[in-house]
Structures are given as structure tokens and as C-alpha cells.
Amino acid sequence: MYYPEPIARLIESFSKLPGIGKKTATRLAFYTIGMEDQDVNEFAKNLLSAKRDLRFCSICGNLTESDPCAICTDPTRDRTTILVVEESKDVLAMEKIREYRGLYHVLHGTISPMNGISPDEINVKSLITRLMDSEVKEVIIATNATSDGEATAMYLARMIKPAGIKVTRLARGLAVGSDIEYADEVTLSKAVENRLEI
Ligand SMILES: [Zn+2]
């Protein structure tokens, strides 16, 4: 099917987003063209600003506007606990339940023996460095309940435990294979409360 070049490019851009096939991309592109000028401008501005104004916190790896991030610099947070997650969106999920008051560490992925992703390729080294000479007493591993999430948890436990720091894992209230991002607040809250030492 022939489309004028500008819309073909827009379809191409939308189809680069996860979970968006050609058909949905085409629908979104045509929808965008029908939008008010003001809304399209705002959309474009938000896309650019999200990319330009956000960076990763140099301490915890979370997405932030200022480095270090608001959580790392918050004097009221408990500095003896670090909760390790796969992605920044998992920090948001945890913050929503408002029960956890410690710090975070974002791995930006998982170790994946199947896909050849080694610990060096995710944000592990900075976690280990962070734990040296710190007041951290417990590391809670909240990687997803997938085989890669488990492999990552086991690897981290092996690395961290010799330093005399307690390592725990979220309790199995979460369904196997599930992402903590999609867990409801009660389930997540229970999973933190009933965490188990590994
Ligand atoms: Zn931070």
C-alpha cells in the first residue's frame, strides 16, 4: 500500500514501539494526523523532553531528572536496606504501595544464561561497589519471577552474602513468570512483608 512519505515515516516510528504491529502503527499514525495541532505539538515536545531531561541516577540507576535522584538524596529513607529491581518502572510499582522506605537499585535487565547476557552487561557492578563500606544490612531482591529473574537473584545472593549482608527475596505471592510491575498493591505489599532469606 502506498502512503505519502510523511505518514509512512510516522507509521515506521510507531511500529518501533514494543507491542505495536504494522496495523496498530498505521491506525495511530492516522489518528495523530487527525489530532489538534496543539495536542500534536505537546506530544512531540513530551517525547523530546522525556528523552532529553531524564538520565540514570549515578547511585541507584533509577530514571531521574536530577542526579543523584530524589530517593537517593531523601534523608528520611532507610539507608540500611536496598531493594533490587529489574527496571525503573518497578521502582514506581514499589513506591505506589508506600510501605517500603529503603533505597533501590535498578539493574536494567537480568542475567540471562539462555540469551548470553552476563552480569557485566547489567547494572550489577555498581551495586557491589555501593555495598562496600555502606550501612546496608539487607538487600531485598525483587527481580521478576521468571527463570532469568531467579538466576539473577541467585547470582546476587552468591556475590553479596559473603559480605555479611542479609539477602532476601520477595515472597511467592507473585505468580510464576509475572512482572512485579503488574502485581496489585496488596499482593506486592504481602510479597515484601513475607520476604524470605536466600
Ligand atoms: Zn538514585
Please tell me about this protein's structure:
This protein is of the alpha/beta class and 198 residues long. The chain has a domain at 67-169: Dna Topoisomerase Vi A Subunit, Chain: A, domain 2 (3-Layer(aba) Sandwich), CATH 3.40.1360.10. Helices cover 40% and strands 12% of the residues. It has seven helices and seven strands, in the order αααβββαβαβαβαβ. It has helices spanning 5-14, 22-34, 37-53, 88-96, 125-131, 147-160, 185-193, and strands at residues 55-56, 63-64, 81-85, 103-106, 138-141, 166-169, 196-197. The strands form two sheets. Strands 4-3-5-6-7 form a five-stranded mixed β-sheet. A two-stranded antiparallel ribbon has the order 1-2. A hairpin with a 6-residue loop joins strand 1 and strand 2 (63-64). Helix 1 (5-14) crosses helix 2. It is elongated and about 65 Å long. The N and C termini lie far apart (56 Å). Bound molecules: zinc ion. InterPro entries: DNA_Rcmb_RecR (IPR000093), Rcmb_RecR (IPR023627), Rcmb_RecR_Znf (IPR015967), TOPRIM_dom (IPR006171), TOPRIM_RecR (IPR034137). May play a role in DNA repair. It seems to be involved in an RecBC-independent recombinational process of DNA repair. It may act with RecF and RecO.
